[in-house]
Amino acid sequence: MASKEGGMAFSRKSYKLTSDAERSRVTGIVHEKLLSDYLHRVFASPDHRPAAATSRKPLNFQNLPEHLDQLLHVDDKEDEESQEQVEGRLGPSTVVLDHTGGFEGLLLVDDDLLGVIGHSNFGTIRSTTCVYKGKWIYEVLISSQGLMQIGWCTINCRFNQEEGVGDTHNSYAYDGNRVRKWNVTTTNYGKAWAAGDIVSCLIDLDEGTLSFSLNGVSLGTAFENLSRGLGMAYFPAISLSFKESVAFNFGSRPLRYPVAGYRPLQDPPSTSLVRAQRLLGCFRAVLSMELDPVEGRLVEKESSEWQLQGQPTVLLTLAHIFHHFAPLLCEVYVVEAVLMSFLLGVVEAGPPEQAQTVVHHVLDLLWLFMEDYEVQDCLKQLMMSLLRLYRFSPIVPDLSLQIHYLRLTIAILSHEKSRKFLLSNVLFDVLRSVVFFYIKSPLRVEEAGLQELIPTTWWPHRSPREGKEEVREETSEERLRRRAYERGCQRLKKRIEVVEELQVQILKLLLNNKDNNGGEASRYIFLTKFRKFLQENASGRGNTPMLCPPEYMVCFLHRLISALRFYWDEYKASKPRTSFSEEAYVPPQIFYNGKVDYFDLQRLGGLLSHLRKTLKDDLASKANILIDPMELQATTMDDLDEDEEPAPAAAQRPMQALAVGGALPLPRPGWLSSPTLGRANRFLSTAAVSLMTPRRPLSASEKVKVRTLSAEQRTREDIEGSQWNEGLLVGRPPEEPEHPLTENSLLEVLDGVVMMYNLSVHQQLGKMVGVSDDVNEYAMALRDTEDKLRRCPKRRKDILAELSKSQKVFSEKLDHLSRRLAWVHAAVYSQEKMQDIYWLLRVCLRTIEHGDRTGSLFAFMPEFYLSVAINSYSALKNYFGPVHSMEELPGYEETLTRLAAILAKHFADTRIVGTDIRDSLMQALASYVCYPNSLRAVERIPEEQRIAMVRNLLAPYEQRPWAQTNWILVRLWRGCGFGYRYTRLPHLLKTKPEDASLPSLQKPCPSTLLQQHMADLLREGPDVAPSFLNSVLNQLNWAFSEFIGMIQEIQQAAERLERNFVDSRQLKVCATCFDLSVSLLRVLEMTITLVPEIFLDWARPTSEMLLRRLAQLLNQVLNRVTAERNLFDRVVTLRLPGLESVDHYPILVAVTGILVRLLVHGPASGTERATSVLLADPCFQLRSISYLLGQPEPPAPGTALPAPDRKHFSLQSCKWAREDRDLGLGQVIRLKNKFPGWKY
Predict the structure, then answer these.
(1) What sequence ranges are listed for the domain B30.2/SPRY (predicted)?
(2) Who's near 575: CB < 8 A, 6+ residues apart?
(3) Of 150, 310, 447, 471, which one has the greatest count of Cβ atoms within 10 A?
(4) Which residue from 398, 302, 391 is spatially nearest to 350, judged by alpha carbons?
């Protein structure tokens, strides 16, 4: 081995061979002429001119060092030019961001002082080097596409939290977020940038101009006539808002888009580059030929066929090369410019198998001839450069750039020793390795080549009018356009699938558990890093910037599911007793045996420490898990640990450091990631106090956790188990099968996948639907514009011109959006992605079902399993249509039924204590019964479960959140009540249509089966109906009283002469109280319809009391709503935003339905009792009944007559009341016979 410090010293073996031929064949020792020819071929002159064999000096290993020194000699003039100060530039030769004084606001800066994240309103920072003459360039890698101003400024520019680069004299900036340029004033300039773009900032101080480029495409000259002269020097600078992040390249790495004539601010290491290129040529020469000592000749070989066979000649040659090459491969610039370029050339030149072989040869030689720390540093820089190239590559039609980078990544990671080092120390610790699984969405479809890939655009045509199903047949032209568009989408999808398959291959390498030769297998290293990754993101929720952006998490989730299912089914093939991935679930013992750390995530039963104390007996009896009382005590005292520094003291030191404008000498929390690659550990602030306090380090495990090891301490045996140890599955309850599902490590990966979906994937799936919504809005606008064009008179040429211009704008926008939508559907909402989410839903359902069987131990399950089950179903139903339908998925109806059973059972489960998850379950059930398919699923669950669900719904409202329960009962009734067949309130049909997918806007789908269960339960016992109805009447009294009080305040505010605004929150609460009142009335109507004897059979002890309470409330509602020129009437006529639902119709029709059921449809004796109770109530007024049928109240003496054109509410004019077949208007008219003095 070569010694890196002193001269060369090689150990030699003494070989005892019988003959020269055998010596040559076995050892590779060659004669002098062949050795000289070989060394001359390897160490050829830089000009590649072969010297004549007779004139060149013979080479051997004794004079090779001298020859190699001459070969690597760089001209002194070149060396001097690279070292001396360049004219036109002032400052350090290594250009970084000025973290000592050249900043304003609060910023987070990377360790390399090249990446920055904004952490205040509008922070600004400049570089340490300025220029005053010549042509200069630097690049900015855009990590987020928000508000930033990038450019140049002088040292005299003064910035603050409102004014940044470009807002002062002698500062110039480009803003790709708003597509403008800034120099005190602003004008339109350039193109919009997106995350993953590279902005080049060019300044020509000879001509006095400044320009920008985006991904190598010039945006044109931005500014001219720059101020120059004495004292005028320009610094690269940026101002960025909160959460935005970028990374600078001043020349420390090769520029991605160099421009001829412009020089980077930091000079490249030219001497090192020249030497590295020459050494690389020598290295490639070694790989391209072999020695044949028997024949005494050199044999040309393909690099992929080359083999290191232990020949001393080859080994000594390589040792001489790496003696000089190894130190150079520790330089960032050389790694990216030389080694990376060489490896990419290998990948691009041949098929993947040959390229992988060559890369393996290279890595083998690196590990053999370089010190470990040198190889590790080289690999780290190599992966950082590779990740940077992948992330900031432009999208091209065939995605060739991304494919080449991923193929090289696969080739490197398929090398076992390199993979384990990178996985242990780099991929999740230094890099955002999740970037490798992300496919960047193009913001500019023209540059991405989508116009060529999808030449014909198309978009679905939807009816703009809600409540009217406009079925229009497709024309032949539309059909041709749609089919051409679909063919383009398929071409795009196939290209994206190539990239996705490469990404899955990377994860398959990381999940390999067969490479345990000489250390831990890759899968178990990955599990440790993956768990920490989840912990950082779970603990950092709500904190910004997050470690992993949600768009990355979505792609990571799908690739991880593919790799996980591959290994799951592969294990099934080798172990027939295990399960297929289609039957996967997470066994319940993982949640309580402490083998998997769930950090501080909430369990269904509350805090883990509380559950361990209260359920320790159940753990012992059902799972054979014993808990030490001393450990329980330590767990309760964990928050009072004296070893931890008190929070005030921990926050004090950062304040002191920040007060002097310095950098914090504290490690940066792990959840704060670099905008590109590294980890920042400097908080820069001009404020006197810190806006952040460092959290407790994430890597520190909890002080006491029963039978738990931290992720770093676990071994393969701790996870997979052994003959006497079940590993992750220790504590198996009797309800669980004895045979394993699969490898335990895959169960932990599955658990992490479910957690990932809960962290941010679902929110991102909902966010991406916005592109489809934009298409629908523009399509409606285009259709309206075309209708106006057809109706516009030909003589109005001015209007026709404006409409034609609008039509063109809408068409161009739709062309752009339809191509973007094709990308989104292929990358996010494809059929395969839908199946992944569906598989995840079924995993959660099985996990919940198995956990439920454990009885009280179900409380240990993390809440996110129920959340993911609810949210994944919502995503499948709402996000993947209309291209893909959930009904097409296998086992669709069975899955709906299983989810319905879970919602029906657990929405009132006493084992679940968290308020948020209980509300989520209630809301999910309320949404579930709004749609016909899911409501039928509820009806398919076993009868005892349906009855138990209805019984829980009828429990007294005072004991739980009653409003949501009431919504569920109302939705079971909607479509059966009087005038209750509408989808949307009749008075809102002419207003702007709402999102038709909302549960409240679905067509009525009542359930007679569940209504019958409700009727049976109300008749069942003497206390069920009274307790339920009393709670309903109490809540109705409260809700309507609150509503009346609020509209009084609103009316008073509206009548004031001075300009005033009613709080929107107050309006929302007011509308909610009104809606609650209406829904409670509908529940009363349903109860009276199903079980009228509860009110009318006075043989029951509570019937008379309930009827009198009901009459009192009905009269109160009628009096408040039907009085002419009353408070309710005045507020309705105001039509305030937020009070759209407040109208006469919904509440009066609900009251009418109750009256009809009481006074018309009941038995004769019952209707007489109801009439007498209603008339006997002191609040009864006959005018209220008259008002329902359109008879206005006569004006009081001395008051003005109402306006003749004013319309009065009347059931006769209400379409939905007239068309009600079961409870028609004639039945209301029959009420006149019930009241004396009626005049109609």
Answers:
(1) 75-255
(2) none
(3) 150
(4) 302
* Most confident segment among 70-74, 314-318, 750-754, 992-996: 750-754
Place of tokens 């059930």: 925
Q: Is the pLDDT of residue 989 over 50?
A: yes
Instruction: Give the predicted TM-score (pTM) of the model.
Output: 0.86
- For 306-309, the CB contacts below 8 A with 24+ separation are 306/358, 306/361, 308/361, 308/364, 308/365, 308/368, 309/28
Distance of CA 402 to the CA centre of its chain: 21
SS3 136: strand
According to DSSP H, which parts of 606-664 are helical?
608-614, 616-623, 629-636, 647-659
Exposed/middle/buried for residue 397 (C-beta within 10 Å: 0-12, 13-18, 19+): middle
Tell me what percent of the residues of the chain surpass a pLDDT of 70: 80
d(CA 1138, CA 1068) in angstroms, rounded, equals 6
Can you name the residues that pair with 246 across neighbouring β-strands?
116, 142
What tokens appear for 597 in the block?
């750390």
SS3 1050: helix
Q: What does the pLDDT read at residue 269?
A: 92
Give residue 865's pLDDT.
96
Q: Which residues of 599-633 are buried (b: 16+ CB within 10 A; e: fewer)?
A: eebbbbbeebbebbeebbebbeebbebebeeeebe
Q: Say which residue the tokens 């070149």 belong to.
A: 78
3-state secondary structure 75-115: CHHHHHHHHCCCCCEECCCCCCECCCCCEECCEEEECCCCE
Q: Please calculate the CA angle 1082-1086-1092 and round it to the nearest 5 degrees.
A: 130
Confidence band, pLDDT 50/70/90 cuts, at residue 737: confident
Residue with tokens 């912990």: 535
Cβ–Cβ < 8 Å for 914, 985: no
| Spatial CB neighbours of 1096, under 8 Å, sequence gap ≥ 6 | 1103, 1107, 1158, 1162, 1163, 1165, 1166, 1167, 1169, 1170
The distance of Cα 1007 from the centroid of its chain, to the nearest Å, equals 37
**Matching residue, tokens 């004031």:** 1056
504-513, 572-581, 940-949, 1207-1216: least confidently modelled range: 1207-1216
Q: What is the pLDDT of residues 517-566, one digit of tens each?
A: 778 889 999 999 999 899 888 876 545 445 788 889 999 999 999 999 99
Between CA 379 and CA 359 the distance in angstroms is: 12
The residue with greater pLDDT, 830 or 82, is 830
The first and second tokens of residue 404, run together, are 């080449």
Distance between CA atoms of 563 and 608, rounded to whole angstroms?
32
| Cβ–Cβ under 8 Å, residues 164 and 122 | yes
Query: Measured between alpha carbons, how far is 212 from 139 in angstroms, rounded to an integer?
Result: 10
Structure tokens at 766: 């909902």
Amino acid present at 433: S
Q: Residue 1165 carries which side chain, given as an amino acid letter?
A: S
Q: What is the structure's pLDDT at 6? A: 39
Is the model's pLDDT at 590 over the cut of 60?
A: yes
Q: In whole angstroms, how far apart are CA 560 and each of 503, 507, 751?
A: 9, 7, 12
**Helices 1024-1055 + 1127-1134 axis angle, to 10:** 70
Dihedral sign from CA coordinates of 241, 245, 251, 256: negative
